[in-house]
Amino acid sequence: xxKQSIQIALAYMSVVIGGGFAxxxxxxxxxxxxxxxxxxxxxxxxxxxxxxxxxxxRMSSKMQANSHKEVLCILFGARVGLxxxxxxSFFLYGVGVVMLAGCGSIFAQQYGLPPxxxxxxxxxxxxxxxxxxxxxxxxLISAVMPFLLAMVLLITCYSIFSxxxxxxxxxxxxxxxxxxxxxxxxxxxxxxxxxxxxVGFPMLAVIGGLTKQPKAAxxxxxxxxxxxxxxxxxxxxxxxxNINQLQGVEMPTLALASRISPILSMVMxxxxxxxxxxxxxxxxFAFSARFAKPESTRFKGFSAISVCIGLALSLGGFSKLVGxxxxxxxxxxxxxxxxxxxxxxxxxxxxxxEVQKSKLNPLV
Length: 364
Fold this sequence. Notes:
single chain, Amino acid/polyamine transporter I, globular, transmembrane helix, transmembrane
């Protein structure tokens, strides 16, 4: 695996792993709530991440795509591709709203402050960043990603080996006392992969287009997807091992950290806020840039208004929004998955026909 493959793999993982994943609420509703069988669900999602990442990166590399819109046009055609792009833009806005709610939940759970306090603080930070174009702040926050991942892995690994209830009891508690995005674990696994692909598709398409070697791009997509699958698996097992102590908790990983140390819990809360900030800025920027030129006066005004509206919508609560917005985005992502799968089958069929022709007529 060369340098380009590694860069694509890391970029793929960083786009998908946002504040929702790090909080543990996503994994709780998409996997852990199904009990032991949810572990199989994480494997299904991991394989889908690898396959879809491979296809998107390779297709973008072959096209030398400058924008995800070019890839959408190939997958759906010009008119339908435009509709899909607009729908994705509005759902990315929904993810930004969820991030505002997540910040409110952190301040409520960790510091005992009203959720609105955290939501208003994050709203002000996001608007300031979008209006002032404080790129250094975003770059600084991006550096939190490896630190946050290390913390999540350490906390969950510790939690796996410190569980205090039989597996049968944990399985029963997980199934009976937790809301899931679907009544079926297979649908939950598919939804998780599809909504994350919908969120990560624009960035992955652009990064793949910067690579002139389709094989290297495809390899990066595969390893990035497998890495995501591994992270989800570890976090899911950690949450499952302690599910009897996570009932009604908005930020599961923060709750696990508080069981280990109050100081660790405080550090984890700051890291989560940074991750949520980074994700929120990315989502609201992508949404506003769809309707106004970045850095223009119109862009700044549109961003400020859209983020304030997002604050009002975020009052619905973090866990409720995760269970509503993300599954809906997942159903939209199904269209992407089907289009990518159809493109893959069509290309394989075309390649098979060419091989058969060459065998029948060596001069071709």
